[in-house]
Design brief:
There is one protein chain. By secondary structure, the protein is of the alpha/beta class. The protein is built from seven helices and six strands; from the N terminus they run βαβααββααβαβα. It has helices spanning 18-30, 41-50, 58-66, 103-110, 117-127, 143-154, 173-187, and strands spanning 6-12, 33-39, 74-77, 95-101, 131-136, 157-159.
């Protein structure tokens, strides 16, 4: 195992778009990073409803999604496991990515109300002045949602709405997913080739 790996936390909540979180986690591992993965109960339900995955055996489901990767590169934690390393600021991670982020999870984070490991890890990330990337997926947004996004941003979070661009001329749903995942990876300085960048026809870069 490479002890010099970059370490990230990826959290998938119950907002629509769990596939974004899966794509981001897969790409981080492929970029030789170590990933601590958190999935909320509602996130598992989105796996079943949107992606038509069989979640009756969650370990088998994870094996289907991540089985080709070294198990040392992906650590999955339950939301009640407060003994997990990511519950403490003394455990150094490079960034935490919540993708997608539900408005309920956003509210907890924006108001410092951490009742599970996901929310605690986000609180730790902010207090340690590390990068917290929040990918909200909700529409329309009401005033409370917008105020919570502003509160999170002022506390240090980086907000990347799940809004795919079209200037790269997407040809498929996968292209749209890759665009959002790529923007998330750009925000944490992880190289990828998920989309063609503006003004460049044959290599990735950022608009």
């Amino acid at each position: 195992m490479n002890n010099s790996k970059r370490i990230f936390t990826v959290a998938i909540t119950g907002a629509s778009g769990a596939v974004y979180g899966i794509r981001v986690a897969q790409q981080l591992i492929e970029a030789d990073c170590k990933v601590h993965l958190l999935i909320s109960e509602a996130g598992w339900e989105v796996f079943r409803l949107e992606m038509e995955l069989d979640t009756s055996n969650r370990q088998e489901c994870l094996n289907d999604l991540f089985g080709k990767y070294d198990e040392n590169d992906l650590l999955v934690h339950g939301l009640r496991d407060f003994t997990a390393p990511i519950a403490s600021g003394s455990y150094k991670t490079e960034a935490m990515i919540i993708v997608p982020c539900s408005m309920g999870t956003l509210s907890k984070i924006a108001n410092g109300n951490s009742g599970n490991l996901l929310e605690r890890a986000a609180d730790v990330t902010l207090k340690e002045k590390r990068k917290l990337v929040i990918v909200p997926r909700e529409t329309p947004l009401n005033g409370i949602h917008l105020e919570n996004l502003v509160r999170a941003e002022r506390a240090g979070a980086h907000i990347i709405p799940a809004m795919p661009g079209f200037y790269h001329l997407p040809k498929s749903m996968d292209d749209l997913i890759n665009f959002v995942a790529g923007k998330v990876l750009d925000s944490v300085n992880v190289e990828h080739t998920l989309f063609t960048r503006w003004g460049i026809s044959d290599e990735p870069a950022s608009r």
